[in-house]
Amino acid sequence: MAKPNLYKGSIHTILLKLLGDEGRMYGYEITQKVKEISNGDLLITEGALYPALHKLEADGLLQVEVEKVDGRLRKYYKLTEDGAKESVQKLSELEAYLETMQNLLQPKLI
């Protein structure tokens, strides 16, 4: 299992990518999908998830829709147009970072 601290700075990128792929999702659904995709290596707690979602919403990257489901209100999150653009930018930055780390950890022999 990977160390949780390795994921700490990536939660916004993870959320943007996931919502870009899946469309609209609610909080618990997000935590379960991340757990599924990561084979249980990454468990996002409510204490980490909701502040990140609120920050992305405040930044205009997420739109919130509230619906009544089984007599309870449920908040669904989805990307705004700016959120979709930010997702592409964050993923590009992450790919460049991963390439740099790969080069540092496994340098090519000339």
UniProtKB/TrEMBL annotation:
Keywords: DNA-binding. InterPro entries: Metal_resp_DNA-bind_regulator, Tscrpt_reg_PadR_N, WH-like_DNA-bd_sf, WH_DNA-bd_sf. PANTHER family: PADR-FAMILY TRANSCRIPTIONAL REGULATOR, TRANSCRIPTIONAL REGULATOR RV3488. This is DNA-binding transcriptional regulator, PadR family. One of its GO terms (molecular function) is DNA binding. The lineage of its organism: Bacteria, Pseudomonadati, Bacteroidota, Flavobacteriia, Flavobacteriales. The keyword DNA-binding applies. It comes from Pustulibacterium marinum. Residues 15-86 form the Transcription regulator PadR N-terminal domain.
